[in-house]
From TrEMBL:
The protein's enzyme class: hydrolase
UniProtKB keywords: Magnesium, Metal-binding
SUPFAM superfamilies from the UniProt entry: Carbohydrate phosphatase
The protein's name: inositol-phosphate phosphatase
UniProt-listed PANTHER family: INOSITOL MONOPHOSPHATASE, INOSITOL-1-MONOPHOSPHATASE-RELATED
Catalysed transformations (reactions): a myo-inositol phosphate + H2O = myo-inositol + phosphate
Family matches, as Gene3D superfamilies: 3.40.190.80, Fructose-1,6-Bisphosphatase, subunit A, domain 1
Domain of life of the native organism: Bacteria
Positions annotated to bind Mg(2+): 81, 103, 106, 229
EC number: 3.1.3.25
InterPro entries: Inositol_monophosphatase-like (IPR000760), Inositol_monophosphatase_CS (IPR020550)
Any GO BP annotation: signal transduction
GO molecular function: inositol monophosphate 1-phosphatase activity; metal ion binding
Length: 283
């Protein structure tokens, strides 16, 4: 495996600290709104996929996020689940190499149903991947946050993955695509079961990755996603010590087309299951 080059220079520490503080504040705001509104009369307008709802809450939270970020980081583009790639304000010289990526309600179908498994996700990124990332887990009253080179924290408590080589009895998280199971998903589940590893589909890519960063699951495999689904959680995973690989098994802090996040001792085997599954036509 060939690693990406390291960033050539350290980002100004004051900028990272300010981004970390603002992102945490926005995550706390979003957690309060999600808890107050989930499953309580929400009337989503369905898009082309029954797995991909749009809600007033999502739009409101993303507008709030964009407004705060435009004030705090003028000229830095914001990309989001609800309003796409349109920047909040025109980029300005000297800041355009950063961008923000937000998913205001990750796990919208769960949110609409009142199932306690959805999240708010926000990341500041540069050309080398996430610089700062936060994921709010409202139902567990947790804010997971990380900054490049500063580690991961859960409600302020440092999190670091322990060494783990035993995968038997572990859990791997994955998710459906917008159109249902991804090609080879059935075979992947069979491969995992043969190794006595369970597979769970819980409905939130951000929380699926966060479970690896927290040491609750041994891996997460996502076959299809958007940047805002995963960027915040990938910051957590990297800073907790997890391995982040692309579909080909190459280290990448922000894979674009398929990703594997795993405890270091599980990465090679889980990637092999994924590769084998892709080679077998889905029945």
């Amino acid at each position: 495996m060939t690693a990406l080059p390291s960033p050539p220079a350290q980002i100004e520490p004051a900028l990272v600290s300010r981004a970390f503080e603002v992102a945490g504040r926005l995550a706390n705001d979003a957690a309060d709104v999600i808890i107050a509104t989930a499953g309580r009369g929400a009337r989503p307008a369905p898009s082309e996929s029954p797995f991909d709802w749009v809600t007033d809450t999502g739009r409101t939270l993303e507008r709030h996020t964009r407004r705060i970020l435009a004030d705090e980081f003028p000229g830095t583009p914001v990309f989001g689940e609800e309003f796409g790639a349109e920047p909040s304000v025109p980029p300005q010289q000297g800041v355009s190499h950063f961008r923000w990526s937000v998913d205001p309600v990750d796990g919208t179908a769960n949110y609409v149903a009142g199932l306690p498994w959805c999240a708010y996700s926000l990341a500041m990124l540069d050309g080398y991947g996430p610089v700062v990332g936060v994921v709010a887990d409202p139902y567990r009253t947790q804010i997971y946050a990380a900054a490049r080179g500063r580690g991961m924290r859960a409600n302020g408590t440092p999190v670091r993955l322990p060494d783990r080589s035993e995968i038997r009895g572990g859990i791997v998280c994955t998710e459906l695509t917008k159109n249902g199971p991804w090609p080879g998903m059935d075979r992947f589940i069979t491969n995992a079961a043969s190794a006595q590893v369970g597979v769970r589909l819980l409905g939130s890519p951000a929380l699926a990755i966060a479970q690896v960063a927290l040491g609750h699951s041994i891996a997460a495999v996502l076959d299809h996603y958007e940047e805002w689904d995963v960027a915040g959680a990938l910051a957590l995973a990297t800073e907790s010590g997890a391995t982040v690989l692309d579909r080909r098994g190459r280290p990448d802090p922000l894979p674009r087309d398929g990703l594997l996040v795993a405890a270091p001792g599980a990465a090679a085997e889980v990637h092999e299951w994924w590769t084998q599954a892709a080679e077998v036509p889905a029945s």
